[in-house]
Amino acid sequence: MRELLHAVRDALLQEYALLGPLGFWKTPVAMSTPEHATGNQDLFGQPQPPPEPAPADPYARIEALIPPDSPLRTMRSLDEVARYVAETVLIPIDARRTNPVFGVGNPEADLMVIGEAPGAEEDRQGEPFVGPAGQLLNKMLKAIGFEREEVYITNVLKSRPPHNRDPQPDEIEAHLPILYKQIALVKPRIILCVGRIAGNALLGRNGSLRALRGKVHDFHGLPVVVTFHPAALLRNPQWKRLAWEDLQLLRAHYDRLMGTATR
Length: 263
Prior knowledge:
With 263 residues, the chain is an alpha/beta fold. The chain has helices spanning 2-26, 58-63, 78-87, 92-96, 120-125, 132-143, 169-186, 196-203, 209-212, 230-235, 240-258, and strands spanning 103-105, 111-115, 152-155, 190-194, 216-219, 222-227. The protein has eleven helices and six strands. A hairpin with a 2-residue loop joins β5 (216-219) and β6. The chain is globular, with a radius of gyration of 26 Å.
């Protein structure tokens, strides 16, 4: 490398001596570039493949996160994905569930709500957020102007972990492509993650809820707000004020996206 830098320096000095200061600075860049050089060569003139263009929209970028060999790649509807989830065992807890808990709500929702995993009542009914935590979630959404039927609600995991334990990393990894496909098909304008595990799983982080909440994150072009899980708020009502701040942040950002913000 040192020899290469010395050679470049000597060539520039010779050009400066030949053309003088005015001619040197007016020399087009192409004159100091070999005729055979192209934009797809490295420093040593070796050909390099052209960079692949990034997908144009956030939903295409998110769908590109799905492994190339996954059957999810070719699916074109939520119903098709739901059937795949119901018929496929990706991890051991899929074989032990009572019902898969895929998702519910408006398939063209502007707001998507993502939790971590189903609980016992969700496993029994096959619908996310139907127990006491779901009733609180409905109130939280209504407080910022959304009805449950307007939004799309799902979880990172589609099967209940035993004894409501936290999802394990391999379980999250196995089910995340399903969530990516749901996002790509619903095409929400903004996402609300409830709980630390859901926020970390979607954003690829390993942070505390304190580090995640109170800001708008970017997920491949989609805004994401993270707040407390409703079940945590039932156990710790003193956190509701902080959750309300997060919900107001989400609503304000949503209004700016939709052009409905008021001064």
